[in-house]
Amino acid sequence: MTDFADRDWQLETLAIRTGIDRTQFGEHSEAMFLTSSFVFDSAAQAAARFGGSEPGNIYARFTNPTVTAFQDRLAVLEGAEFCVATASGMAAITSCIMGLLSAGDHIVASKSLFGSTVQLFNTILSRFGIETSYVDLADTEAWERAIKPNTRLLFVETPSNPLTELGDIAALSAIAHRHGALLAVDNCFCTPALQRPLTLGADIVIHSATKYLDGQGRVLGGAVLGSKQLLEPVFGFLRTAGPTLSAFNAWVILKGLETLKLRMEAHSRNALELAGWLEQQPNVSRVFYPGLPSHPQYALALRQQRFGGGIVTFEVAGGREAAWCVVDSTRLMSITANLGDVKTTITHPASTTHGRITPEARTAAGITEGMLRIAVGLESVEDLKRDLKAGLAQ
Ligand SMILES: *Cc1c(COP(=O)(O)O)cnc(C)c1O
Questions:
Q1: CATH number at residue 318
Q2: End-to-end alpha-carbon separation of the chain, Å?
Q3: What is the pLDDT of residues 293-344, one digit of tens each?
Q4: Taking residues 134-142, what's their average pLDDT?
Q5: Is residue 5 part of a domain?
Q6: Best residue for ligand 1 mutational test, from 210, 212, 213 (most atoms within 8 Å of Cβ)
Q7: CA 225, CA 85: separation in Å to the nearest integer?
Q8: Which atom from ligand 1 is nearest to the alpha carbon of 93?
Q9: Does 32 fall in a domain?
Q10: Beta strands in 116-267 (DSSP E)
Q11: What is the pLDDT averaged over residues 365-369?
């Protein structure tokens, strides 16, 4: 494998050119290696591979050239030394924690995490003696107050879903390091095209590759990135427990990465235009978007992110009835909670993604009945405005 990270190339070049060396056929597009195992030249070579004295592939639960190509490409984009690819975003979070934490350890996490992450922390990790405390994402001092002597990990998602609140990655990494803990950032919403947490001091980056890295809603995938030494036990967990990324999915996401920068900039341009337009609409009481000067953390957004990203949340006057009316009046947008796709999606968080938590907890999280979240895709923004206009007029 060529060491592309040494080359003086820009992100868009690395996203296209990092990968597998050509096979004997001289193919231009990266080859996909659909094989579960690999053969050896001799008994001695088999022994050397298994013993670790000779590098190389053994079995696809451990490594596969297509998966390795995806890992190398995402690693250079995030500025990481090492990447462990996983079967999904949740497999990435699980592998990270199973690799690095033990019974008796403590996690500090933001209240506004992805729903399945909260489920993992509260219902599964708790059974294995790993406890989690939750704090307000934007309240940096609250993070420090929540730290205990056994805190090993600070876990953050920024911007948050659906309120687009931001966590200050540089400040949180300083707090983590002051207390001998690690900072992990779920960079799903921004991707390295907009935000590179490792350069801001984070120790670990987590991805659901299912979202923007694939970018077209085709496959599940995930990744954990950081230094090789730190992530060795995470790779060890994957190799033993088996939540490995398939070669097919790795190939799809590998090709998705080639257009990542273009797509993220286009998602952000469309989202900024739509968010600004929504602010002008009479029945819209509030718009949440980090790229708007009205966002309470606009200064931090400018410092930490290249653009605002593709997620826009807004509140319509008239509660659930009015919000559902907007959803049901759309003809173009897909009514689904998924995000990170070229197709625009619209969802009512209070009755879908955040429908299972109690009304009190929802109110505490700032999620109201009139709130809608749009994951802005790459259709014409004029068509998206027209699609919302009818519902907003009612
Ligand atoms: C979707 C998502 C995940 C989980 O990823 P899967 O690929 O669905 O397992 C984790 N974090 C965030 C922020 C997500 O949006």
A1: 3.90.1150.10
A2: 59
A3: 999 999 999 999 999 999 999 999 999 999 999 999 999 999 999 999 999 9
A4: 96
A5: no
A6: 210
A7: 9
A8: 10
A9: yes
A10: 131-135, 151-157, 182-186, 204-208, 222-226
A11: 91
Domain's final residue, options 257, 275, 290: 257
Å from CA of 282 to ligand 1 middle: 34
Q: Which protein residues touch ligand 1 with a CB less than 6 Å away?
A: 88-90, 114, 116-117, 157, 186, 188, 208, 210-211, 220, 222
Asked if the model's pLDDT at residue 362 lies above 90, the reply is no
Decide if pLDDT at 4 tops 70.
Answer: no
Answer yes or no: are the C-beta atoms of 128 and 105 closer than 8 Å: no
pTM above 0.85, yes or no: yes
Residue where a domain stops, chosen among 203, 229, 257: 257
How many structural domains is the chain composed of? 2
* The predicted structure's pLDDT at residue 2: 44
HSE (side-chain half, CA atoms, 13 Å) at 233: 9
CB distance 80 to 89 below 8 Å? no
- The parent domain of residue 150 ranges over 11-257
- Regarding whether 236 and 268 lie in a shared domain, the answer is no
Are 173 and 269 in the same domain? no
> Across the chain, what does the average pLDDT equal?
95
User: CA-CA distance, 101 to 107, in Å (whole number)?
Assistant: 9
Q: What's the 246 CA to ligand 1 centre distance in angstroms?
A: 17
- Ligand 1: nearest atom to the Cα of 161: 13
Mutation probe of ligand 1 site: the residue of 116, 156, 373 with most atoms within 8 A of C-beta: 116
Q: Is residue 3 part of a domain?
A: no
DSSP string, 330-372: -SSSEESS--SSSS-EEE-GGGTTTSSS-HHHHHHTT--TTEE
Ligand 1 pocket mutation pick from 88, 90, 341, 352 by most atoms within 8 angstroms of CB? 90
User: Do residues 342 and 382 both lie within one domain?
Assistant: yes
Shared domain check, 167 and 85: yes
Q: What's the CATH number where 188 sits? A: 3.40.640.10
Ligand 1: which residue has its CA nearest to atom 4?
89
166, part of any domain? yes
248 shares a domain with 171: yes
Q: Are residues 243 and 273 in the same domain?
A: no
